[in-house]
Amino acid sequence: MTDPACIFCKILEGDIPAVKVLESPDCLAFMDIGPLAEGHVLLIPASHVETIDKMSAAGAAAMLGLLPRLVGAVQAATGCAGVNVLQNNGPAAHQEVMHVHFHIIPRNPGDAFHFNWPAGKYPNGRIEELAEAIRQELD
Ligand code: AMP
Ligand code: ZN
After folding, report:
1. Segment holding 104, helix H or strand E
2. Residues with catalytic annotation?
3. Domain with residues 7-113, CATH architecture
4. Among residues of the chain, what percentage have pLDDT more than 70?
5. Which ligand has the shortest distance to the CA of 113?
6. Nearest ligand to the C-alpha of residue 96?
7. Which residue of 62, 115, 116, 122 sits 20 to 30 Å from the alpha carbon of 86, by its own alpha carbon?
């Protein structure tokens, strides 16, 4: 299933060009045209799904199954020191293209990509309370 209004579906349909690096029946990986670093790759499912929580387990497994090889190839090709695998899920999390995608972003010491990591602390009992709420939602 594709969405004619979706830019990544247009890439899947061949309606707009992309520089592809890996194709499978379930997924496509291609070069990000606005790279945060040289070699920045996007991995997308071949069906239109907006956010990862809406994916089937099988669809997510197919996509994640490609990550080790893809990350290894990006690292080997760029010689980067590390990689961030980033999945922006929802507009509040900086998702601009509403078709699930994983960013594979090459990283090197002192590079230009920064993100704020404001690690907090839980008040007494809150961590257990939240874990229980999440467990309930998993059922
Ligand atoms: P996000 O903010 O997580 O939704 O990221 C969307 C990403 O898609 C950005 O990094 C864009 O540079 C990239 N992007 C948008 N349009 C295209 C396109 N036509 N080909 C390749 N990458 C694209
Ligand atoms: Zn789409």
Report:
1. strand 102-107
2. 101
3. 2-Layer Sandwich (3.30)
4. 100
5. 1
6. 1
7. 122
User: Residue holding tokens 């709420």?
Assistant: 133
Considering only CA atoms, which residue is closest to atom 20 of ligand 1?
Answer: 33
User: To the nearest whole number, what is the mean pLDDT of the chain?
Assistant: 97
The tokens describing 50, both together, are: 């907006």
| Residue corresponding to tokens 């190839």 | 73
At 30, give phi and psi (nearest 5°).
Answer: -150, 165
Share of the chain above pLDDT 90, in %: 97
Mutate which of 8, 11, 95, 96 for ligand 1 pocket (most atoms within 8 A of beta carbon): 96
| Pocket residues: Cβ below 6 A from ligand 1 | 7, 18, 32-34, 42, 88, 94-97
Where in 26-75 does DSSP place strands (E)? 27-31, 41-45
Give the residue extent of every domain in the chain.
7-113
Q: What atom in ligand 1 is closest to the CA of residue 16?
A: 19
For residue 6, is pLDDT > 90? yes
CB 1 within 8 A of CB 47: yes
Tally Cβ neighbours within 10 Å of residue 80: 17
Nearest to 28 by CA among 68, 57, 62, 79: 62
